[in-house]
Amino acid sequence: MAFRPAGGANPAFPFADMSREASLARLEKLAHLLDSAFLIPGTNRRVGIDAVLGLVPIVGDFAGMLMSSYIVYEAKRLGVPRWLLARMALNVAFDGMVGVVPLAGDLFDAAFKANRRNVRLLRRHLERTGGLRPNEIEGTAFRIDG
Question: How far apart are CA 64 and CA 77, in angstroms?
Answer without folding.
Answer: 21
